[in-house]
Amino acid sequence: MRKTNPSKHKTVADFFAGIGLVTLGLERAGWSTVRAYDYAPEKARAYENHFKSDHYVTQDIAKTRGSDVPKVTLAHASFPCTDLSVAGARGGINKGESSAFWEFVRVVKEMKQEHGEANPPLILLENVEGLLTSNDGKDLRSVLSTLNDLGYSIDLLRLDAANFVPQSRVRLFILGVHDTIVQALPTGSMEQEYALRTSDARSEKIIKYIETNADLRWYFHQLPNLPKRTILLEDIIDQSEEWWDKERTDYLFNQMHERHRQLVRKTMKEDDYLYFPAFRRMRMRDGEKRSTVELRSDGIAGCLRTPKGGSARQIILRAGKGTFNARLFNGNEAARLMGADDFAIDPSLSLNQVLFGFGDAVCVPAVEWIGLHYLNSLPLQPIGRQQLIRPAALAS
User: Fold this and answer.
1) Neighbours of 369 (CB within 10 A)
2) What's the domain count of the chain?
3) CA–CA distance from 114 to each of 34, 84, 179, 383, 387 (Å)?
4) Which residues pair with 285 in a beta bridge?
5) % helix, strand, coil for the chain, step of 5
6) Helix, strand or coil for residue 125?
7) How does DSSP classify residue 113?
8) Cβ contact 388:179 at 8 Å
């Protein structure tokens, strides 16, 4: 994809940067990451192999000091979702790995001390949709009110990777726009009420949360609706990858529910191949709890995950032309499912390391969309004195 020309004002510090898919998405929108932080050496290797950069700092955020971060326009953080995801223990924003958010807050405060209160002018946060309901919504409110305290008006978006690529991957994005920037933007009550409802990136669930927390300081940017996906599942398939042998494929077939076996038998009669993503899960089958292969038949892969357990490795099945084949998704396909088709995969990394990197990342075109339609249409230089904005339409 063609990159937009970068501006000297479009600079980024990327925290919890992983293998760099946020950097890649923002790069496509014309932004330049000048410093990236993460603690995992293998992620640093993957990042540096693709970007050929020397700005990656392999360091725990607890050891990162804001005084060492260069002055930037945007600070981004995909802080850990482990304690917020509905698949986890849901300990919340103050527990375990997800509490690293507060280290990011400390770093931002230190950046302000170093570069001025209005710096960085913009903040972008990304996390799982579970943040919306974690501790009955109190965790998200804590994040948002903290951004208010730091001098930012806030916006909340919900994007699904399925609008861009054939993968179901819903994520929340939180925008923090410094109040000195907001002064240059349309913030009248009618304008804000209209902007709030312009885009399906703010779903009814998001709007309800916003209305419930109307006392916070919000700014809503007018946005288009999310795009309709044009990439199909078959478009991401690596045709050079070998399929499993018949014995292993038959074993997998026998692990399916009968309704899924019937679907495969029917599809084998088609003149063309159809593809079905699948996961192994423990389910009650034939009266006992057994490892069961469950197919997805809507043309979309399940959410890519980090391969921490047997169920995390997603399977791709192919049926048609009188045949049935199966195998695991490979690294190239994982990259394509994240919209990172041109990502240069480091051949020295193991498959598990590659899959972990992509499964722990952010969908590239989703970030690009925010860059193009939100960040790029903001005035990037603070003006005047700080003014607190509370849209009258929501405060009333």
Assistant:
1) 24
2) 2
3) 17, 32, 19, 19, 22
4) 288
5) 35, 20, 40
6) strand
7) H
8) yes
Residue 165: burial class (beta carbons within 10 Å; 0-12, 13-18, 19+): buried
Give the span between the Cα atoms of 94 and 103, in whole angstroms: 11
pLDDT-derived band of residue 392, with 50, 70 and 90 as boundaries?
Answer: very low
| C-alpha separations of 238 from 116, 234, 330, 351 in Å | 49, 9, 8, 15
pLDDT tens by residue, 278-326 = 998 888 777 888 889 999 999 999 999 887 654 468 999 999 999 999 9
How much is the pLDDT for 283?
83
Residue ranges of E strands in the chain:
11-15, 32-38, 56-58, 74-77, 122-128, 152-160, 170-178, 274-285, 288-295, 315-320, 323-328
Q: Identify whether the C-beta of residue 130 lies closer than 8 Å to the C-beta of residue 154.
A: no
Answer yes or no: do 209 and 248 share one domain: no
Beta 122-128 vs 170-178: how paired, if at all?
A: antiparallel
Can you tell me the distance from the alpha carbon of 324 to that of 28, in angstroms, rounded to the nearest whole number?
A: 38
CA distance 79 to 128: 10
Q: Which among 50, 45, 55 has a CA at the least distance from the CA of 21?
A: 50
Question: 13-43: per-residue pLDDT in tens?
Answer: 999 999 999 999 999 999 999 999 999 999 9
In order of 118, 255, 284, 366, the CA distances from 249 in angstroms are 58, 10, 21, 35
Length of the chain: 396
What is the pLDDT, as a whole number, of residue 90?
54
Considering the domain architecture, whether residues 58 and 123 belong to the same structural domain is answered as: yes
The answer to whether residues 166 and 281 belong to one domain is no
Query: Taking phi first (over 0 means left), then psi (-120 to 50 degrees means alpha), and beta for anything else, what does residue 116 get?
Result: left
Range of the domain at 215: 11-229+359-395
CB atoms under 10 Å from CB of 115, counted, come to 16
- Segment of 82-96, 178-192, 303-317 carrying the highest mean pLDDT: 178-192
